[in-house]
Amino acid sequence: MFLQIDNLSKQFTTQHQDITVLENINIEIEQGEFVCVVGASGSGKSTLLRQIAGLDTPSSGEIRIGGVPVRGPSPDRGMVFQHYTLYPWMNVQKNTEFGLKLQGVSSRERRERASYYLDVVGLSDFAQCLPSQLSGGMKQRVAIARALVCEPKILLMDEPFGALDIHTKESMHEFIIDLWQRTKITILSITHDVEEAVFLSNRIFVLSSRPGTVKNELIINLPDRAATVKRHAIFQDYRDELMILLRQHGAESLRSAST
After folding, report:
1. Residue 86 φ then ψ, to 5°
2. Distance of CA 73 to the CA centre of its chain
3. For labelling alongside 215, which of 71, 206, 238, 248 has CA 20 to 30 A away?
């Protein structure tokens, strides 16, 4: 098993009480899978991703990647956020090279690797542009190239397309599917977008809210990953099933909060 999360829980201590955000999370992901985690606001999706990235520490439980426990950030995990977090004073080439520079990689190798991944994401012609000269979708492609250039074992995405308009989002869905199929990288993405989760992933984990626990696992088996698949009955059935599960767990959370 490539990514293994065993009995993970996370509590935060406030001035008045301890709040459990995640409780007894158990997830296993094979190498090369594309997996989405969905849940309502307050289900702890971003908190879970931060634990996997090593940006925060679980209160209990363990995360292992390739059998190695996660103890902090590492280049073997690439991270893409909803907001592009590009440095506005650096051009696209320098933004893409930045992680390699922090690792002490030589300037020649940085240029070569960044140029390769900018070609992978289709932005070679924009290498000298500043972020302000790019569209939202192009900025997110730069962020993905910057994550890939360190050649991580897994790509973690936190609502990566949430800030994009619908047409750009659909284009980015097709782009990330193509990228995944070409690179064979393992991808774990969190989203609240039901259609996005069904279109992109092999499997979907559904979290409940307050605290976040894994309530369901859906295996997605679409005939293809072209945009036209969204018109197929099988896609609509998956979408409807996921919507029902999210509504069900949302109602359960509201009942729990009122008791």
Report:
1. -85, 150
2. 15
3. 71
Q: Hey, is 73 helix, strand or coil?
A: coil
Domain residue extents for the chain: 3-76+154-258, 84-151
Closest CA to 194 of 42, 38, 43, 82: 38
Q: Which residues pair with 205 in a beta bridge?
A: 37, 217
Question: For 3-76+154-258, CATH number?
Answer: 3.40.50.300
Query: 206: exposed, middle or buried (C-beta count within 10 Å: 0-12, 13-18, 19+)?
Result: buried
The pTM of the whole model exceeds 0.70: yes
| Coil vs helix vs strand at 169 | helix
Integer Cα distance of 183 and 88 in angstroms: 28
Give the whole-angstrom CA distance, residue 111 versus residue 97: 7
Q: How many CB atoms lie within 10 A of CB 227?
A: 13
* DSSP H or E run through 180: helix 166-183
Cβ atoms of 198 and 235 closer than 8 Å: yes
The CA distance from 229 to 231, in Å, is: 5
Closest CA to 208 of 33, 34, 35, 25: 25
Dump pLDDT digits (tens) for 17-56: 888 899 999 999 999 999 999 987 778 899 999 999 999 9
pLDDT of 257 above 80: no
DSSP 16: S
Side chain identity at 106, as an amino acid letter? S
Structure tokens at 244: 């029902």
Give the whole-angstrom CA distance, residue 219 versus residue 217: 7
